[in-house]
Structure formats: structure tokens, C-alpha cells
């Protein structure tokens, strides 16, 4: 299992268009990806659940990646977050 924290820097937080691209990319991996914000957590491969978290600029989230391709998935996810959010 890989786990890392990320602080959202995008002024709009996690919003629809890039979140849709993120979900699409994550679905290409077999690993499960869970995002934690406070006491809530959701599957990052589900767009409506991800949007429902209401992650805003300045929020720090914890992401856990678990599965057979977790290293590649976590690396791709970290890269996407740094470039987009």
C-alpha cells in the first residue's frame, strides 16, 4: 500500500473538468484508490463521490493506493495532482 498527503493549491479546489480527467486516468489502473478528507473517505474512481467531498484550495487530503499496480498508479496520480490541482 502507498499512502501520501497532498495539499490542494488550485483556487477552485477539486472541480468537475479536471476531476473527470483524473477519474478517467485512475480507471486504467487495477489498484483501488481512496481519498480521505477529515473523517470522510471515498473511492477516487467515482466522480460524484469525489466531487461530493468538497475539497477546496488549502485542504490537505490523504490518498491511499492499494493493489497490484500501486506503484505506477501512485506515481501517475501524484504527477497529475501536481500538474492540475
In short:
The protein has 85 residues and is α+β, with helices and mostly antiparallel strands. The protein is 38% helix and 27% strand. The protein contains 3 helices and 4 strands.
Distinctive features:
alpha+beta, 3 helices, single chain
Instruction: Label the overall shape.
Output: globular
Poorly predicted ranges: none
Task: Please tell me the overall pLDDT.
Answer: 96
List the secondary-structure elements in sequence, H or E.
EHEEHEH
- Sequence of strands across the biggest β-sheet: 1-4-2-3
Q: How many strands in all?
A: 4
Structural class: alpha+beta
Q: What's the alpha carbon Rg, rounded to whole Å? A: 11 Å
Range of strand content:
25-35%
Helix content range:
25-40%
Largest sheet: 4 strands, antiparallel
Number of discrete helical segments: 3
- Terminal CA distance: 23 Å
Notes on the structure:
- The longest helix has 15 residues, at 70-84.
- The mean pLDDT is 96.
- α1 runs antiparallel to α3.
- The two termini are 23 Å apart.
- The protein has a four-stranded antiparallel sheet with strand order 1-4-2-3, covered by helices on one side.
- It is globular.
- It is built from three helices and four strands.
- The protein has 85 residues and is α+β, with helices and mostly antiparallel strands.
Amino acid at each position: 500500500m502507498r499512502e501520501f498527503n497532498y495539499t490542494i493549491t488550485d483556487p477552485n479546489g477539486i472541480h468537475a473538468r479536471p476531476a473527470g480527467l483524473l477519474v478517467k486516468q485512475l480507471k486504467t489502473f487495477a489498484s483501488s484508490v481512496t481519498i480521505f478528507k477529515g473523517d470522510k473517505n471515498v473511492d477516487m474512481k467515482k466522480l460524484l463521490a469525489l466531487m461530493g467531498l468538497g475539497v477546496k484550495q488549502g485542504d490537505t487530503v490523504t490518498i491511499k493506493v492499494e493493489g497490484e499496480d500501486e506503484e505506477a498508479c501512485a506515481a501517475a496520480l501524484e504527477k497529475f495532482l501536481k500538474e492540475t490541482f
